[in-house]
Amino acid sequence: MSRWHMLVLFFLAGTTAFSQNADSVFIKSISDEILTNGKAYENLRQLTKQIGGRLAGSPGMVKAEEWGLKKMQESGADKAWMQECMVPHWVRGGKDEAKASWNEPAKASSNKNSVKLVRSLDIIALGNSIGTGEKGITGEVLLINSFDELEKKKEEVKGKIVFYNYRFNDTYINTFLSYRDAGQYRGQGPSRAAKYGAKAVLVRSMTHAADNNPHTGATRYDSAYAKIPAAAIGLKDADQLSAQLQNNQVNVTLKTNGHFLPDTIGHNIIGELTGSAFPEEIITVGGHLDSWDNCEGAHDDGAGVVQTIEIMRAFKSLGYKPRRTIRFVLFANEENGGRGGAKYADEAKAKNEKHLFALESDAGGFTPRGLGLSGTEEQYQKFLTWRELIAPYGASEFNKGGGGSDIGPLSKAFNTATGSLNPDTQRYFDIHHARSDVFENVNKRELLLGAVNMAALIYLVDKYGL
Amino acid sequence: MSRWHMLVLFFLAGTTAFSQNADSVFIKSISDEILTNGKAYENLRQLTKQIGGRLAGSPGMVKAEEWGLKKMQESGADKAWMQECMVPHWVRGGKDEAKASWNEPAKASSNKNSVKLVRSLDIIALGNSIGTGEKGITGEVLLINSFDELEKKKEEVKGKIVFYNYRFNDTYINTFLSYRDAGQYRGQGPSRAAKYGAKAVLVRSMTHAADNNPHTGATRYDSAYAKIPAAAIGLKDADQLSAQLQNNQVNVTLKTNGHFLPDTIGHNIIGELTGSAFPEEIITVGGHLDSWDNCEGAHDDGAGVVQTIEIMRAFKSLGYKPRRTIRFVLFANEENGGRGGAKYADEAKAKNEKHLFALESDAGGFTPRGLGLSGTEEQYQKFLTWRELIAPYGASEFNKGGGGSDIGPLSKAFNTATGSLNPDTQRYFDIHHARSDVFENVNKRELLLGAVNMAALIYLVDKYGL
């Protein structure tokens, strides 16, 4: 592309609706402030490179909490505090390892015997899973492509290592649908296999990526069945293993070390700008501070964390005095317990707080495409009137349905309207819960634009209510 | 993000309008075909890794043309041919080099003399620029932050190397606006400096990226003034050079070798699916096959090339028989001459062809956000009626104004309506015309989705006219 005059027209067409009223002027000033002076990218660098992984209960969690509180204070909070909550403390306990072995049949032309081949698999234990013990578990692998197939082959499961090779669906445009679809195998797969006597489970990673990075995530044991070790396997290894299983018996030796330590103390980190007109009406905006241990948690959810802090910084920097109280919350333990979100709602209930709206960013620091809202029809209609003001900044798709797991409990407790930033979903599951979820895979402008669109919505809810 | 049930609602909301008529069913089949069996990504790997840079006149151009013709044939063209056109043949002629030197003043506490420091700069000659000659050009650097400043300092320019340090504007949301804004310094800068006697020009690269890769692109000499050598400089070096110039005189020795060889023969590569009902009505879809020499041209415009081929492949694979004739065109010489686009229109005029619509993809292989259309108001209104059918695949922003430099001549010749795929713009200028425009920076699904949205529009224009 060397000539741009045509392309420029698109933008102009998109902005004719950009009426020159006070709101559009202020939203432009938010955008300029964040795009020019934004600290979110540098803050993300600190969170990912100086702290890194920060699973509930880990030393990283403690460091991240201290860092978050300091950032809230530095960024101009009227008040900033840590809200204590007990969090689960699952540890990986060592390196996850797996080796596959099979007999390569002798060639017809050769008079040699068959040869035993052994190959390492790139795996990672699922969060909350139990370990195999020191010796590991060895067993024959049973290839299962779907739960339907599991039911058909249930007689063959006993004593085997079940390998769920369910593919991430390419045909959904929104990749969260592929994730919901395939995610069942991570969540329910181990117990469904244990029901028929499996001794361990391998799960194909939930991703479109063509690399071999395994993707972790929490599994949920059904208490009706034995807990068995479970691990995710990288895509290339999954493909090779399934190909090998077409012709050969394959045994796998799996060694994982996951276990729970006693629950420990974690914290939601909260910064507040106190409302000038209606301080009792609370607007919450947040992301989660914890991440899986095998990555930097840059997109998930470092992005939501630094965007949350950025919105406060920009409001302060612009001298904006909110009418309502805005709480900026870095939630604890989203990944493997959800205790932070629950605690935030519980304390709000105990104090009989009035929660008007909550907004969550937990779908990565990618270019913003839209905003979603769950609330009454009246609230949704009001939300739609703001579309023209926000769309020029990227979030042009205003959808019904929005929220997230950390603000879900607030919605249940108070019928609080909840919203979410909806970034583009195409690249999210390339890196989600994998070692490739690192700072280098976050684009500065995409990250900052997420904060711009969220800040614009928060400003409008603060000014006009919802 | 470990819980997704909320997020899924967004997608469902976005697809309620997805009426189950024949068009939506066929567009879904296009999408499934491309997302599941698409060859665009592997084709891009071949084009970038086996051929690489392919500037007009280069050996890469010749290889790319052969490759393009073969791909058209393999992908099922009813006819495929090469349309000859003369192209300019600019060559870089060697490695571009620059060294900055200045005297570091002696410290007050020291009795030593000042020290001369020399530092290499990461530069790349602008396309179409003349070289410095073997010995290079040495001169004092004059820092110029804008054309206004150039006019104010015009008396100081004579004999100097002008360094335009105009910043890429952070506040535009559509980065093509920042490019138009800063691009003037690349296009006009050398001649405007030559007017006042400058001996060479350095230009700050046009990018938001924080790396030091210099970004080339074509300059345009004004024949009223002397041609002087001109090069782009990486952002880090630009910042350091401008900082140094606050306190010190800096000399730069620039060595570039660019020159023109005689015009040579290049080709547009054309594949055609001949219309079954109205074969005389032609719809064109294309991207440009040439790229700068300093990169793989993966996004610019390898993406447009492989998307164009992909649409034909998908139509053939689905057994789609177009009513009108669809031409799939890989244009020659977009980057530094535009001869391919001009030739295509000239031949169409000479043959008195009937061109209904032309669609171009030349803004990178990023996630699609919209489609733009330039045409009559009636055509635009018809285009808008298709929005609901296409929006579920990503191109939800239907804008007035669309086209591109390769199909511009067709529009001029016939008033043909022109359209463009509008991908997200945030990352484009990170890599545009820089050595980082490589295959690894293209995401498979983002690339394929671009083809899906283009194919849907082509299908609708083919079926209903425009």
How can the largest sheet of chain A be summarized? 8 strands, mixed
Mean pLDDT of chain A, to the nearest integer, reads 95
Radius of gyration of chain A: 24 Å
**Uncertain runs of chain A:** 3-20
Pairing-aware structural class of the strands and helices of chain A?
Answer: alpha/beta
Count of extended strands of chain A: 16
Biggest interface, residues from each chain:
A-B, 74 and 73 residues
Summarize the structure.
With 466 residues, the first copy, chain A, is an alpha/beta fold. Chain A is 36% helix and 25% strand.
Account of the 3D structure:
- 2 copies of one chain form a homodimer.
- Chain A is α/β, with parallel strands linked by helices.
- The first copy, chain A, folds into 2 domains: 19-91 and 262-464, Zn peptidases (Aminopeptidase), CATH 3.40.630.10; 97-257, 3-Layer(bba) Sandwich (Glucose Oxidase, domain 1), CATH 3.50.30.30.
- Helices cover 36% and strands 25% of the residues of chain A.
- Chain A has helices spanning 5-15, 22-37, 40-51, 59-74, 147-152, 175-187, 189-194, 235-247, 298-317, 339-350, 377-385, 387-390, 408-414, 428-431, 444-464; strands spanning 79-91, 97-104, 115-121, 123-125, 137-144, 161-164, 200-204, 230-233, 250-255, 259-273, 278-288, 324-331, 354-360, 368-374, 397-400, 417-423.
- In chain A, the strands form 2 sheets. An 8-stranded mixed sheet of chain A has the order 1-10-12-11-13-16-14-15, sandwiched between helices. An 8-stranded mixed sheet of chain A has the order 3-2-9-5-6-7-8-4.
- In chain A, helix 9 (298-317) links the parallel strand 11 and strand 12 (324-331).
- In chain A, helix 2 (22-37) packs antiparallel against helix 15 (444-464), helix 3 packs across helix 9 and helix 10 packs parallel to helix 13.
- The two termini of chain A are 44 Å apart.
- Chains A and B meet through helix 1, helix 2, helix 6, strand 14 and strand 15 of A and helix 1, helix 2, helix 6, strand 14 and strand 15 of B.
